[in-house]
Amino acid sequence: MVFWILRRLGYAVITLFLVSLLTFFIIELAPGSAVDAEIDRLRAMGSTVSVEQTAALEEQYGVNDPWIVKYGKWAGGLIRGDFGMSFAYREPVADVIWTRFGLSVALAVGATVIAWGIAIPVGVYSATHRYSLGDNIITLIQFIGVAIPEFLLALAVMVVAVQMGFDVGGLFSNEYRNAPWSLAKLADMLAHLWMPLLVISVASTAWLTRVMRANLFDVLSQQYVQTARAKGVAERKVIWKHAVRNALHPLVMTLGATLSVIISGEAVVSIIFNLPTTGQALIQTLIVKDTYVAATLLVMLSALLIIGNLIGDLLLMWVDPRARVLD
Fold first, then answer.
1. I need a surface site. Which of 75, 93, 184, 211 has the fewest CB within 10 A?
2. Whole-number Å distance between alpha carbons of 322 and 305
3. 314 and 290 in a common domain
4. CATH number assigned to the domain comprising residue 201
5. Which residues in 232-271 belong to E strands, given as ranges?
């Protein structure tokens, strides 16, 4: 087991190196630079930027260096824990990321818990009551949840929340924004987070419920389930102790992909609800080509995908002893 984990970690290091190289190269393919975006912003505000000032900024930030040279500077700092400076935010990249990373992880973990907490019991009910009225209603809701775009759902939830008198947008209300931490401020933050959590978890919940329903229905037709029923085992025990455990395999196997998809997918939702997350920062830095921030965030998302897949494999071994035969 230990050797297997170490080997997977070794593969992870190689994968992250290739991902970082490809990510940096693709970002650098885009025309322009962060300096150009800043100069355009200054000129739009009426400021005059001379050719000498432009050249000085390009020299300072190494805009005209070959992309592999820029990558070497960034990767070398990445190994030392120095992610470089963000031109768009005018602060270290580490500060830009870590002040937002906690909220992104909290939203992702919360959405995952909500999705699993709803998908498993609802999927079990749907599989054990196939083609009933309840199953048909659940199926309709699932199709709507998978099909509706997140940004559209976020706007709809925001409109309904405003009509109901909720404070929408941002992480805190005005009176708590600069206030010290307290139970009241924590409650205010949670009151602002339930809406984005709802929007982010809808698609995952609908998809996981479909997977749980389909897989459990197949498992219930297996011979060992029929044998347990023939022996007189209670139906509730047959379903929850024998069938559900084996039906969880696809959900566990997709855990790693789900975590990174949720974190990257919350970008649009965060912009609509004005939340300071890494997804929002990623989109903004890609627009202005703030390469160091964008590349670091993409590598971190890749690392989360790798870690999530490793956790998913370990959970699969715990759920199914047959998976403990390591290659």
1. 184
2. 24
3. yes
4. 1.10.3720.10
5. none
Tell me the C-alpha distance between 316 and 252, whole Å: 6
Question: What does the pLDDT read at residue 125?
Answer: 93
Q: Number of folded domains in the chain?
A: 2
Hey, which residues does 86 pair with through a beta bridge? Answer: 91
* DSSP string across 18-84: HHHHHHHHHHHHSSS-HHHHHHHHHHHTT----HHHHHHHHHHHTTTS-HHHHHHHHHHHHHHT---
Same domain, 206 and 314: yes
- 183-191's contacts with Cβ under 8 Å and 24+ in sequence apart are 191/166, 191/167
Q: How many angstroms separate the CA atoms of 263 and 200, rounded?
A: 9
Residue where a domain terminates, one of 72, 93, 114: 93
Cβ distance 258 to 308 under 8 Å? yes
Residues 34 and 152 in one domain: no
- Is the pLDDT assigned to residue 261 strictly greater than 70? no
pTM: 0.77
- What residues have CB less than 8 Å from 244, skipping those under 6 apart? 120, 124, 216
